Amino acid sequence: MKRFVTHPYAVLTFTALIWGANAVAGKLAVGHVSPMVLTMLRWLIAGLLLLPIARPHLERDWARIRQHKRLYLFLGTAGFTGFNALFYLALQFTSTIHVAIVQAAMPLFVFAGSFLLFRARVTSLQLAGFALTLIGVLVTTAHGEPSTLLHLVLNRGDVLALVAVGIFGLYTVIVTRRPPVHWSSNLLALCVVAFVASLPLLAVESAFGATRWPDAQGWSLVVFSAVMPSIVSQALYIRGIEMIGANRANLFTNATPIFAALLAVLLLGEPLFPYHLAALALVFAGIVLAERGKRSERIASHPKTPVSQDAA
């Protein structure tokens, strides 16, 4: 175990696997626990489990967390509750593979948020990459039939997944503004906000008579969601960033849709159609182009200092 947590590629690959498994868990939860109950219980249990870990650090970090309370209210409400509630709701209406491919468009939303909020620069390679990613999502939405786009009636689940990914893209941009506190204090604060924010959604679900409290399988999925995607993956991702840096660590999140699609085929028996493979290829070709665009921008903004003739 000690050797595992010192190997960044193993840590970050396992993190992406957990995130991919979260999509499968959300699909398995259909009929066993309703989306808002799953969302509420996930953050409640995660917060309770984090409390003894975060307690030694809270006294030092609490002042900074309070100072940034509006930021935490937004991040916990949108990034944790909003994203996951819509994510689980989307899986009620569409396949895990569809959600996984839509989720692969995350870099497009991150770019849009960075540009709109912070006027981030963009290169031609990045634009080409984002265009390919968007085409991949459209291929998925149209089920591989381009003519379908002319009279497209969007699947409710695909729309919910797109909105969820858009929200999490905005969260990804803004979370960089969080204060420098211990990871457990940060995560506990977000879990508390997420739990409180989930209560009105649970009330709405109950008002529509759609509430379903977990059965035995539902509880196992609730516990999995509270422990693995909510705590373990977050801790491992932070560990990976510490070892190889945020930019390189972020590349591993691109493996999440691949793991989700593979697990959906293996565990759920979902069919993998040729248009799924084409869409995944387009999405990841777009990501590669966008990442090359980022690197070329960094090289252009930090050119090597030429060696003078005097120094030769």
From TrEMBL:
Q: Does the keyword Transmembrane apply?
A: yes
Membrane topology value: Multi-pass membrane protein
Please name the InterPro entries in this protein's record.
Answer: AA-Vitamin_Transporters, EamA_dom, EmrE-like
Q: Which cellular components does GO assign to this protein?
A: membrane
Q: Which domain of life is it from?
A: Bacteria
Keyword tags: Membrane, Transmembrane, Transmembrane helix
Against Pfam families, the record matches this protein to: EamA
Q: Which family does it belong to?
A: Belongs to the EamA transporter family.
According to UniProt, the name of this protein is Permease of the drug/metabolite transporter (DMT) superfamily
Organism in which the protein naturally occurs: Aureimonas jatrophae
